[in-house]
Automatic annotation (TrEMBL):
One of its GO terms (molecular function) is transmembrane receptor protein tyrosine kinase activity. Residues 25-124 form the Protein kinase domain. ATP binds at K56. GO terms for cellular component: plasma membrane; plasmodesma. Keywords: ATP-binding, Kinase, Nucleotide-binding, Serine/threonine-protein kinase, Transferase. This is Protein kinase-like domain-containing protein. InterPro entries: ANXUR1/2-like, Kinase-like_dom_sf, Prot_kinase_dom, Protein_kinase_ATP_BS, Ser-Thr/Tyr_kinase_cat_dom.
């Protein structure tokens, strides 16, 4: 585990920065909930300026644990694609395991699929 942490050291974000971006995990900043746990949004300060980010907080009660967290860090930091959300970093501090992603301003695909504004296309 130590070697993994060393390899991805450049992606480490301090818990202090996460708390500042999410107003200390304020409920008003929650944008969703998935198998991993709650997802918050916030402005992350990076060397290139502020970036809107999604903060996925691991909730161990929801079944997914540490291995999935590190798998996600390894996969997303190695593969980049225009159709793949970028991993901005992670926080593993003070008992918190948080993945930081680029914020998808259009929301997730499942939101669009359940949207009532979806237009039906008929092909003749
Ligand atoms: N990068 C992101 N940008 C904007 N919103 C996001 C982002 N990631 C997650 N969300 C929001 O949080 C919700 C939960 O996302 P999450 O990926 O945790 O769950 P999921 O899509 O149900 O997948 P799973 O259950 O496999 O974890 C999404 O439906 C979406 O609304």
């Amino acid at each position: 585990m130590d070697s993994i942490m060393k390899e991805f050291e450049h992606l480490v974000v301090k818990l202090k920065e996460v708390k500042s971006a999410t107003d200390n995990f304020n409920d008003a900043k929650i944008i969703g909930k998935g198998g991993f746990g709650y997802v918050y949004e916030g402005e992350l300060s990076q060397p290139r300026g502020k970036t809107k980010a999604a903060f996925k907080c691991l909730d161990r009660k929801h079944g997914q644990g540490g291995p999935e967290f590190w798998k996600e860090v390894m996969m997303l930091s190695r593969y980049t694609h225009e159709n793949l959300i970028s991993l901005l970093g992670y926080c593993n501090e003070g008992g918190e395991m948080i993945l930081l992603y680029e914020h998808a301003s259009n929301g997730s695909l499942d939101r669009h699929l359940s949207s009532t504004t979806l237009v039906r296309i008929y092909v003749s």
